[in-house]
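Intended use. Records like the one below are meant for learning the mapping from a protein sequence to its folded structure. Do not use them to infer anything beyond what is encoded.
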Amino acid sequence: MNIFDKLLRLLTVITAVISVYLSIYALIENSLSVWVSISTIIFSFILIVSLYLTYKEGNVEFFGLVGTLLGGLTLGRLFSTMHLETINLASLSSLDPLMVAETGEGIRSIEYVSSVLFIVLVIQLIRLPWLKRTTTQSKKIGTPSSYEWGMTLIRVYAGMMFIAHFTGHLLAGGAPFAVFTEYFGSIGLPFPQGFVVLAGVIELSLAFMLSFGFMTRLAALGSALYLFVSVGLGGHYSVGYVWVLPSGGWEFPALWIFVSGIFMLAGGGNTSVDNWLRTRSLWRNNQLRPLIS
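Structure written out for the chain above:
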């Protein structure tokens, strides 16, 4: 292993540990809600376990990197939108609530450390196929071509995009949950609290399935349909195409839908849980095989 890769590994471990420490410290110092505490503990656990799996055999393992990325980005997102002061939702104007739920002053130290962690993880993820002559190569990914690896990175990115959404809907609790409940009710959905939770569960599931390449074709179909319906319910189609228009047009969602839809055709590829499952005898003649082919 060369000096550069050793430094990347050391920096990854240091930033991951600091990120978890700062997140736990923020819980204690600011007396955050039980729901935020549970969310933080779960994704801190995912981050640490994934990091261990990434390096435990002396290799840099793909699935460990993806898990570490998922845990680290979720913690970063959760604390970057954090409002430590009490928010009186009744005093907000009609445009303020969603801004409150999606943005915040956050905790800067966690934002900075999460950003560094993201950068070092992405560098390792991009480099992974070209480490085949060293002991740091992941044994599970083989030697994909540049094209195959590019498609894998796009799939991971399309999945990770859901982190920003399920974090607010499902993990942040408190004021963000109340804001989304009010918003879902305002667009005519019955039982808005249930729909907020449902949206979060769907987004979390799609993030996991696309990022790891599990039942990729089903995940790609679900992603495209979910985005198509949610953009329509949010009224973006009537705004216009360009995304930067007030209230947001449908330019960005259309791109995300298209990218997700590609994997209905391409599947998860060789670097995916689907490919790993295909080698298991239990799945060779299973009725679910078309979903992992």
